[in-house]
């Protein structure tokens, strides 16, 4: 019993620190470099858990802060249904900060990719696509989310 509490506390502190670091562009760049499919999967699952709302919020915040990077958009593409599920949950949460994070994340996903940080060209790259469907289109196909935002 005690070890579970210690593990949960440790996870809480780690996600708290990472969420704060993800707000800083230099740290975010390093975090994105370390990201791979297993880490992305764990982060999305943490964001989707309902039992530990603070850890869920922080994991979702980390994801939201990394959305401007093409590598993250590619890694998140196969987790879109899980992302939609936690965004739906956040939109109906009683705390406004959850709703704000969901709306901000939804808008970033809907917009697709933007110029990479530090890019000198003003042009936007083409949306990331797989088999002809962009990640932003996959998010748009969630009518419940669009209806909640309307």
Keywords:
mainly alpha; Leucine-rich Repeat Variant; single chain; globular; two-stranded antiparallel sheet; 69% helix; 9 helices
Tell me briefly what this model is.
With 150 residues, this protein is mostly helical. It has helices at 2-21, 25-34, 37-48, 53-66, 70-76, 80-91, 96-111, 135-140, 143-149; strands at 129-130, 133-134.
For the sheet with most strands, the description reads:
2 strands, antiparallel
CATH architecture: Alpha Horseshoe
Strand content: under 5%
CATH topology: Leucine-rich Repeat Variant
Describe this entry's structure for a reader.
The chain has 150 residues and is mostly helical. It has a single domain, classed as Leucine-rich Repeat Variant (Alpha Horseshoe), CATH 1.25.10. It is 69% helix and 3% strand. The protein has 9 helices and 2 strands. The protein has helices at residues 2-21, 25-34, 37-48, 53-66, 70-76, 80-91, 96-111, 135-140, 143-149, and strands spanning 129-130, 133-134. It has a two-stranded antiparallel sheet with strand order 1-2. Mean pLDDT is 78; it is low at 113-141.
Strand and helix layout:
Blueprint: H1 2-21, H2 25-34, H3 37-48, H4 53-66, H5 70-76, H6 80-91, H7 96-111, E1 129-130, E2 133-134, H8 135-140, H9 143-149
Helix pairs in contact: 1-4, 3-4, 3-6, 4-7, 6-7
